[in-house]
Automatic annotation (TrEMBL), chains A, B:
Domain of life of the organism encoding this protein: Eukaryota
GO molecular function, one term: N-acetylglucosamine kinase activity
Gene this protein is translated from: LOC103713830
Residue ranges of the TM segments: none
Family according to the record: Belongs to the eukaryotic-type N-acetylglucosamine kinase family.
Protein name in UniProt: N-acetyl-D-glucosamine kinase
SUPFAM superfamilies (alphabetical): Actin-like ATPase domain
Domain ATPase BadF/BadG/BcrA/BcrD type span(s) in chain numbering: 28-325
InterPro entries to which the protein is assigned, alphabetical: ATPase_BadF, ATPase_NBD, Euk-type_GlcNAc_Kinase
Gene3D superfamilies for this protein: 3.30.420.40
Organism: Phoenix dactylifera (Date palm)
Annotated EC: 2.7.1.59
Amino acid sequence: MKRYRNGEIWNFESQTPAARDGSAGVILGVDGGATSTVCVCLVAAMPSAGPLPESLPILSRAVAGCSNHNSVGETAARKTLEEVMAEALSKACSSRAAVQAVCLAVSGVNHPTDQQRILDWLRDIFPSHVKFYVENDSVAALASGTMGKLHGCVLIAGTGTIAYGFTEDGREARAAGAGPVLGDWGSGYGIAAQALTAVIRAHDGRGPQTKLTENILNILGLSSPDELIGWTYADPSWARIAALVPVVVSSAEDGDEVANKVLYVAVQELVDSVIAVVRRLRLCGEDGKDPFPLVMVGGVLEANKRWDIGKEVINRISKVCPGAHPIRPKP
Amino acid sequence: MKRYRNGEIWNFESQTPAARDGSAGVILGVDGGATSTVCVCLVAAMPSAGPLPESLPILSRAVAGCSNHNSVGETAARKTLEEVMAEALSKACSSRAAVQAVCLAVSGVNHPTDQQRILDWLRDIFPSHVKFYVENDSVAALASGTMGKLHGCVLIAGTGTIAYGFTEDGREARAAGAGPVLGDWGSGYGIAAQALTAVIRAHDGRGPQTKLTENILNILGLSSPDELIGWTYADPSWARIAALVPVVVSSAEDGDEVANKVLYVAVQELVDSVIAVVRRLRLCGEDGKDPFPLVMVGGVLEANKRWDIGKEVINRISKVCPGAHPIRPKP
């Protein structure tokens, strides 16, 4: 196993009893995004024979920050992943020797080379018998809404956004999920960046006045829109920008036209992503009316009161694909 | 004087003869942007009495990379500024002891606190008698087109973009210059990011097919739009993205509709910035026809052949402000 520079991460293992022969072993499941990363440690299988239970018992759960390498860089993302897996194992009074499989579903896995880099890195950390599964986090998100079946479309809209779809015969397609530079305008980051842009435009005379100015400056403790420039670039983390979404939503609920426009543009972006995936995979069949699950997850789709972004997205998608069956898994 | 961690920067001074009593001394002028930074070393004044010449003799010129702290971070930006000033002094066979004044005009100076931080840092580097002038680079750009007079409007469109204006009685206003997160869509970065976004959208079914896909992948040596995501976030430098502008321009010249749309949107953004400044300062007078200089600088406005972004910008501005007198200083 790898001797990590920050070796303290795995120090707890010296206090962990070695896995006994015949003991069940554990599985690590990681769901990593641009804001937070969750790792659960599950019992791998029951030691006695018999049918498997509907869900495997969860031994422990650990939470950490961003593990999207495109947002915080590869070193920070890996440190977060390693720490959250170690914490979950430590809480379960287990160790790497007991791990049978690791399933990592993280945002930022967009290409086979991303997958390969993470696999190589996992092999350095864990014993050679461990099985690895590395996927984009949207795969886990879809499975969370369909009881594990990979069929249908999932829309994630948190700090980032992606739409991912699977057919029953194994074809897949995605839209968006390319990060803020490449136009993910339906993401939490996209919504907040558009709102900040609207404040700058109102300030320098290129756009209409908006309540977003007062509301955003208040929450950030700034006194002038000029100060937003320094604030924005002081820390490039996507999650820090996306944390402004609730201010945009409340400004829209208070009737601010600019904030409402920002949200409606974001809704259409999210709808476009889902429709693009559904069309490419023909999830709604030849007549456009076939039923398919549409799993919707992420803070942008969940945390609203009167202005419900998720509901608006469903309304618009239903007009094009009446067979879309929205599922919102419990967080 | 500061003992810099990277002390080698100023090592050359031990070989420089001390400034003689009565010698003229020198002035350092720095023009810093998100792609490159230029420092010139000038003779401060003629040792003999008499009228000043039209332009002060340039002793040396040094060129370095990005000095915008919002793009590359404060440490890298300061290192670039310090190195380019040292190189100019070294080439002029001079030293910090001979410096009478430093005029730093750098992009990323958006707020009095930005100015103050740079002033404090300069005081650490130079002897106590040196005078300092720290401004946004648009001030130097305007002066470069008006023979030093601060009146009129300047539009910079390089890696970044800003419009800055001054009235004859000293009022000033600006528009844009807030960086890519805050919507500088007329910048080189903005144009390239919109083109990259169009490639992603064509690829995942959200947008029309475009020649930009083949042209951009070719120039970057990539084989699929999926690889653009990794390429984009491998290095966050704004200049690296903006370097794709010539591909967008040539794609537009070849008749690609998507590339043409990207450029027309950018032109309108640049026009909006200038008009916002002109209106706030009433540079075109009560009847809208007063003459004023419009200085235009930066790679986006210069480097075009058939598709001339600068010319399009001037055409549209002239319709609103017929008194705008475009000036394109030699680079």
